[in-house]
Amino acid sequence: MKNNLQIISSLLSLQRGYVDDEYSLDLLHEAQTRVKSIALVHEKLYRSEELSQINMQHYVDSLTRDLLATYNQQGVDLNLDLEEIKINIETAIPLGLIINELVSNSLKYAFKVKGEGKIDLSLKKYEGGYQLKVKDNGAGLPPTLDLDNPKTLGLQLVQSLVGQLDGQMEVNNGEGAEFKIQFNKLIYDSR
Questions:
Q1: CATH topology of domain 2-183
Q2: How far are the Cα atoms of 34, 48, 111, 137, 167 from residue 30, in angstroms, in the given order?
């Protein structure tokens, strides 16, 4: 699976070489980061001692460092507050994609000056489940953004994935953007 995802990522990278317009380049780049975040889940799973659980501290650390490098945002102060949490792959993939989308959006849109700003990301146990918080100190969300019916693929994807996790999302838009997501570990019946 991991090798197949790496091939898809490479194909997307190659395809970017044949595209001239900025909008299409951005779309291919976003698709590539999504595929990489899924591939990273599989890589962490294969390297783990427990083949059914992923250490989210290591995964989120790797994912966010990759995103900082991908978006060339080494000057952004990324603060991670991650509890020692191990979850199954059915939960880790949608959670990883949510983190990918929210951190990518902060890196792309929040900071007026490239390489400046702060992103706080926490993942903790919360009321029998878990809570993910992603907050930046950037420009905030556009006032015209309809969070109940977002027009951007990234926010549509986040809403869909939160639903897949049977989660609840709260968005605060003041001094930057803040997303709080409460969810439970997905449990699948293998019968």
A1: Heat Shock Protein 90 (3.30.565)
A2: 6, 27, 18, 22, 24
